[in-house]
Amino acid sequence: MSTRVEKPATADVDRxxxxxxxxxxxxxxxxxxxxxxxxxxxxVRGTSHLALGQEAISAGYAVAMRPDxxxxxxxxxxxxxxxxxxxxxxxxAELLGRGNGMLHGKGxxxxxxxxxxxxxxxxxxxxxxxxxxxGAAWSAQVRKSGQVAVCFFxxxxxxxxxxxxxxxxSVIWKLPVVFVCENNQYMEYTPIRSVTAVEHPAAxxxxxxxxxxxxxxxxxxxxxxxxxxxxxxxxxxxPSEKPARATAxxxxxxxxxxxxxxxxxxxxxxxxxxxxxxx
Length: 279
Ligand SMILES: Cc1ncc(C[n+]2csc(CCOP(=O)(O)OP(=O)(O)O)c2C)c(N)n1
Ligand SMILES: [Mg+2]
Prior knowledge:
Blueprint: H1 15-40, H2 55-64, E1 70-74, H3 78-83, H4 88-95, E2 119-123, H5 129-143, E3 149-154, H6 161-172, E4 177-183, E5 186-187, E6 190-191, H7 203-206, E7 213-217, H8 221-237, E8 245-250, H9 258-269
Parallel strand pairs: 1-2, 1-3, 3-4, 4-8, 7-8
Antiparallel strand pairs: 5-6
Helix pairs in contact: 1-2, 2-8, 5-6
């Protein structure tokens, strides 16, 4: 396949932006580490999926976005939602099922949403939010608002029909939407390679729909910020000329999911111990 890892020039990322990226990444890491501890204490209602190690992607995009842009994300959405400016206290209260939570304690970790800050929802059905993000982009296009929808999803999502439908329609209608694949190499416990015909699950396929694929290192905050700036900037500047773009990225380590944490909790409560997979 022709897809290559790119390294956008980052020399122009200024010091205040770098500090903001760093601050945000630390905040997101702290939030999730605390959430994980509380989960192990059985205080988190329902399940919770962490994005430990994926902070550079959330921070890079959030810092580059306009306040009225839209974010759509998966059940692994703490970072993306908080990075848009949603309240950490309300987010944590939501995980704990409290009335003062972001969704009054009714949605939990997998559904964090804060429309005021453009965080248009975390979706537990794999792939469900890609067509919805395309719809939001369509709305922005019709209203000529200049808003861009950014849609985050996992590598496993590229094997779902909705991924293909959303990309195809977005190109046909030239929608201002950016599709961002966070490739952590696994779809839950299944190594993506064992179930996917191409090497780069999103990037290799996006070109089939006429999208420009960009494959970058998701661990590098400067690179992520610059990638975000470029991928968001182009559809905003020329909404009807350019098709939606796909950005795929590699994340080389696996981040712990709450499913793993659930297992640990069950075994702890039955008196057995087991080491968690490392992050
Ligand atoms: C339509 C649908 N099928 C199956 C599932 C069960 N499921 C939950 S997470 C997951 C794996 C998703 O992998 P990926 O898109 O790579 O996201 P990651 O968890 O790695 O961030 C699956 C299959 C689901 N939630 N929705
Ligand atoms: Mg994955």
